[in-house]
Amino acid sequence: TPVVEISLGGSDTCKTSAFVDQTVLLTGKSACYPCQHSQRCAQKSHLCSESISVQDALAGFVQLMESSEQKTFSRADEIERAIWTSYLNAAEVKITLSLVEAQDLLKKTEELLQYQLDFDSCENFNQIFSSLQVIADKKIDTGVYFQKLAQVFKDRFANAETAFSALKKALEQSQALLQIRLNLINQSLSMDGGTYADRT
Q1: 200 residues of the chain, pLDDT tens digit each
Q2: Which residues are CB-neighbours of 163 under 8 A, at least 6 positions away?
């Protein structure tokens, strides 16, 4: 079924948007979009929804009806969706990166990998929370790999053991996602005669 999807608030286009070929995706254009899932809007009005006009929605519908082949996701979204699909389905999704894409993605991934190493060795909740704030402010976690980790700090747990268990699972998820991303980069770089391991 062809879909015109309007993505607002905390909706995550990498993980929860329509996974069908014929999709026109309209996303909020405000600086605060996307916001954290399950949080109240911090603005005086819903800026993300106000940034999409009736004309935008109509244009999306017309675009969908006039063309049988749609490419409505940005290239960055396509890459992140492939990574999440690989993770959620436990099966590799094929997507080829150009050398420029692989090198650009590698720079961002190296920074996230450093945070992952810090989180894995950290025993201080305050330090993890502070680092998560920096990641959010810098907007470098485009694949929302650390979203589950951030959620640990918002949930109320019955005891410390449950909280640490949730923290461990969240770190395992972010590690798995970063490894899939790194594998994708390595596949592309190896076609050009190099890998991440060669660079480190």
Answers
A1: 788 888 888 887 777 777 666 778 888 888 788 887 667 788 888 888 888 889 988 888 888 887 755 555 678 888 888 898 889 888 887 888 888 899 999 999 999 999 999 998 887 778 888 899 899 888 889 888 998 888 888 787 888 888 888 889 999 999 999 999 999 999 888 875 555 555 54
A2: 152, 155, 157
Task: Spell 131-144 as b/e; 16+ CB within 10 A means b.
Answer: bbeebeeeebbebb
Token pair recorded at residue 181: 């991303």
